[in-house]
């Protein structure tokens, strides 16, 4: 992980000067505030700011003031009810702002989630650092033969070494040319906004990313899933840990109903009822396509 001296000084100063506040505070989130959590080889996430906690969710759902006389158990039950019945608005009352350092190719996948506010480091105005994501050997995998978007077996021996050397050499060469094109030694050089186009997709960028809890849960449901690309999943996993400390009741409901639960189609539900009644249901009698049936059996662990 690469935190610059200036960033570390800012973190130390902010954490050294706590201030009293009347706003809702999550003790679990306070321990994460400003602190960088390492991800991949040079990346990190850190919480810059947040708003709300579990109580903010139930307060919004009840449209009342304060905690009132409701017990904690009632709050947890209400949060689980909201999650179970897809009531999203109360979860939108909580927000979090992350500072994220990530490879450009991960950022381009991440930005597909358009429900956040994003401000990215500008290579038009500043020069990017010589930092590239180079996968660990056990993350170098061949193309999957059954999934056009996935990975297959891990590369071994000479093939793995060959690929790693190419990744390192190409990244270094591209950055060398980037610096040469900028030509800051008395030559005119190329504009930064043009010189950056030669940089590889594994170079690191940074951004501030602010999102409400409902849409954060949607991001985590997709990107912390076992089928997500490893590199973005590493960031999602780190965010899961932070979110669990921030809103423990909401995260527990999210884990149960979204991460650990499944959604059945009307045909799938009908098949379950028929199976419980003792009928031997097959793909041919289910009314489902082969793909639907395969996914359905996967949900049932068959």
UniProtKB/TrEMBL annotation:
GO biological process: dTMP biosynthetic process; dTTP biosynthetic process; methylation
Coiled-coil region: none
Position of the signal peptide: none
Record-linked InterPro entries: Thymidylate_synthase_ThyX (IPR003669), Thymidylate_synthase_ThyX_sf (IPR036098)
Gene designation per UniProt: thyX
Pfam families: Thy1
Protein species of origin: Rubricella aquisinus
Keyword flag Chaperone: no
PANTHER family xref list: FLAVIN-DEPENDENT THYMIDYLATE SYNTHASE
Enzyme Commission code: 2.1.1.148
Cofactor notes: Binds 4 FAD per tetramer. Each FAD binding site is formed by three monomers.
One annotated GO molecular function: thymidylate synthase (FAD) activity
The protein's name: Flavin-dependent thymidylate synthase
């Amino acid at each position: 992980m690469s935190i610059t001296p200036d960033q570390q000084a800012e973190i130390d100063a902010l954490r050294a000067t706590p201030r009293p506040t009347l706003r809702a505070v999550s003790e679990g989130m306070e321990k994460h505030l400003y602190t960088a959590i390492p991800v991949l080889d040079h990346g990190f996430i850190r919480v810059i700011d947040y708003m709300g906690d579990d109580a903010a969710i139930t307060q919004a759902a009840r449209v009342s003031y304060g905690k009132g006389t409701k017990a904690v158990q009632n709050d947890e039950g209400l949060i689980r009810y909201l999650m179970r019945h897809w009531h999203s608005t109360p979860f939108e009352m909580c927000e979090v702002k992350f500072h994220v350092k990530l490879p450009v190719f991960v950022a381009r996948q991440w930005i597909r989630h358009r429900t956040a506010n994003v401000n990215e480091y500008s290579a038009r105005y500043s020069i990017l650092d010589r930092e590239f994501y180079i996968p660990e050997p056990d993350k170098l995998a061949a193309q999957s033969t059954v999934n056009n978007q996935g990975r297959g077996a891990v590369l071994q021996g000479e093939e793995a070494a060959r690929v790693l050397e190419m990744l390192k050499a190409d990244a270094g060469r591209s950055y060398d040319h980037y610096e040469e094109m900028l030509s800051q030694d008395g030559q005119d050089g190329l504009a930064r906004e043009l010189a950056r186009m030669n940089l590889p997709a594994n170079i690191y960028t940074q951004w501030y990313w602010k999102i409400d809890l409902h849409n954060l849960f949607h991001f985590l449901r997709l990107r912390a899933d076992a089928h997500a690309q490893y590199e973005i999943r590493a960031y999602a996993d780190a965010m899961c840990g932070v979110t669990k400390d921030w809103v423990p009741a909401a995260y527990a409901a999210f884990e149960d109903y979204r991460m650990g639960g499944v959604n059945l189609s009307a045909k799938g539900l009908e098949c379950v009822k028929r199976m419980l009644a003792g009928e031997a249901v097959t793909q041919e009698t289910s009314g489902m396509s082969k793909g639907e049936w395969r996914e359905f059996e996967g949900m049932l662990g068959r």
